[in-house]
Write a structure and sequence with these properties.
It is built from ten helices and six strands; from the N terminus they run βαβαβααβααβααβαα. It is an alpha/beta fold. The radius of gyration is 18 Å and the shape is globular.
């Protein structure tokens, strides 16, 4: 078991980046699966989770305005006491690469830990995605990218990611991949030189209770005027209906 300078397990914060248009329960469920994994294996202590929706200029199909996605995420996360919402990406003047997003959040956390003369309340008001300050002790925190197997597969597609970005993400942060039972992520890693080189920085976690609900499938149902009851949080559904999001006239 790894230990930090205080003799306890290294503390990590999980961050999920993406469109979240709309956010589904599985987006949040991944955090719980990962937290349980690290608790069982006692390798790291998960002290926080962050959801960071991408900037509007990312231009992905089905991406509604950032203010709507932030509100839907806030509604969907009301029942969580440890997964927080970061609006940093959305509030930038342009889209930022995942590498930059991870760097910003990790630096903000560790700068706070290293600068005890900063007013705690002021910092917490500025960074509402921070874990509770009682969890931020003297040991530095690593931000790990939480994702599904599709993102791992995208790393292996030539030209889709900058190789230096993949290296930076793996070396300085690491990724936690939630995979489906029966899938073979080890093959993806084996067939990729860069993923194989940094295999020790990749944590693979099998989800034995699969949920195939995706934002794309939900948008399809909404566009057709079909029910999405029990696929999204009720409050998120109500918000979508209120603003007429994802229908054919949007």
């Amino acid at each position: 078991m790894l230990k930090n300078s205080s003799g306890s397990r290294p503390k990590i914060v999980l961050i999920a980046c993406g469109s979240f248009s709309p956010p589904t329960p599985m987006h949040f469920r991944m955090f719980e699966i990962a937290k349980d994994y690290f608790k069982i294996h006692q390798s790291h202590e998960v002290i926080g989770g962050i959801v960071s929706p991408t900037h509007d200029s990312y231009g992905k199909k089905g991406l509604v305005n950032g203010k709507h996605r932030l509100t839907m995420l806030s509604l969907g996360l009301r029942s969580s006491n440890w997964i927080k919402l970061s609006d940093w990406e959305i509030n930038q003047c342009h889209w930022n690469r995942t590498k930059v997003v991870l760097e910003y959040h990790q630096n903000a956390l560790n700068n706070f830990i290293n600068s005890r003369n900063i007013d705690d309340e002021c910092v917490e008001n500025e960074h509402l995605w921070f874990p509770h300050k009682s969890l931020l002790q003297k040991d530095l925190i690593k931000i790990k990218l939480l994702c599904g197997a599709d993102l791992l597969e995208s790393f292996a597609i030539p030209g889709l990611w900058k190789e230096e970005d993949i290296e930076d993400i793996l070396i300085n942060h690491g990724i936690v991949v939630i995979t489906r039972s029966g899938s073979n992520p080890e093959t993806i890693i084996f067939e990729s030189d860069i993923l194989s080189k940094y295999r020790k920085h990749i944590v693979l976690i099998t989800n034995f209770v699969p949920n195939d609900v995706s934002s794309t499938k939900v948008r399809t149902l909404l566009r057709r005027g079909e029910s999405v009851k029990y696929l999204l949080d009720d409050s998120v559904i109500q918000y979508i209906e209120k603003w007429g999001l994802y229908n054919s006239t949007t």
